Q: What sequence folds into this?
């Protein structure tokens, strides 16, 4: 009997392990971090480079639509680490669009090497490209810059930029999509 009992015990044990693994992997698949991995601008139904229509959808819808890293910055106002963004040291000629909705934000002619670790511009593409919000977080008073169409967090603007505007729009690369002229 002993070997049979052991066998049954082992079988039960294996089943539990097996189920445990199946459950774990199912749970993992359901996490947005996993499903969003393949998400790009082409799978984002709100990404449109010509529409001016404002986007007002729930945070849950944004979370389903954006990649995890873009969601963290665009909707949770996170900041990418300095000197790590793909557009920090990048000076090709073209336009920068909102990575969340495709709104045209900046032109390469207004980009300059600020040395601050994030892509920097001295002016926006148009007056309606962005909106401004007073940001009192982290014990500072700063001006937050959000997308004029979808309200995605883009970065902050400071008054230490070059002429002619004197502004430095300090942006997250992850919030931007570049396209050549
Ligand atoms: Zn946008």
A:
């Amino acid at each position: 009997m002993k070997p049979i009992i052991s066998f049954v015990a082992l079988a039960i044990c294996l089943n539990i392990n097996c189920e445990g693994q199946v459950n774990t992997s199912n749970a993992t698949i359901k996490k947005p971090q996993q499903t969003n991995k393949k998400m790009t601008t082409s799978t984002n139904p709100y990404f449109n480079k010509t529409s001016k229509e404002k986007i007002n959808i729930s945070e849950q819808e944004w979370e389903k639509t954006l990649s995890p890293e873009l969601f963290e910055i665009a909707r949770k106002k996170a900041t990418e680490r300095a000197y790590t963004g793909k557009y920090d040291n990048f000076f090709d000629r073209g336009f920068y669009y909102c990575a969340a909705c495709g709104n045209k934000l900046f032109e390469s002619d207004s980009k300059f090497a600020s040395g601050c670790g994030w892509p920097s511009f001295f002016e926006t593409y148009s007056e309606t490209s962005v909106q401004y919000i007073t940001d009192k977080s982290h014990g500072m008073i700063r001006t937050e810059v959000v997308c004029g169409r979808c309200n995605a967090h883009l970065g902050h603007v400071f008054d230490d930029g070059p002429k002619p505007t004197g502004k430095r729009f300090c942006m997250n690369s992850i919030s931007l999509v570049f396209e050549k002229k």
Notes: The beta strands are 94-98, 104-107, 111-112, 120-121, 130-135, 142-147, 153-158, 168-171, 176-180. Residues 80 and 178 are 17 Å apart (CA to CA). Residues 1-34 have pLDDT under 50 and may be disordered.
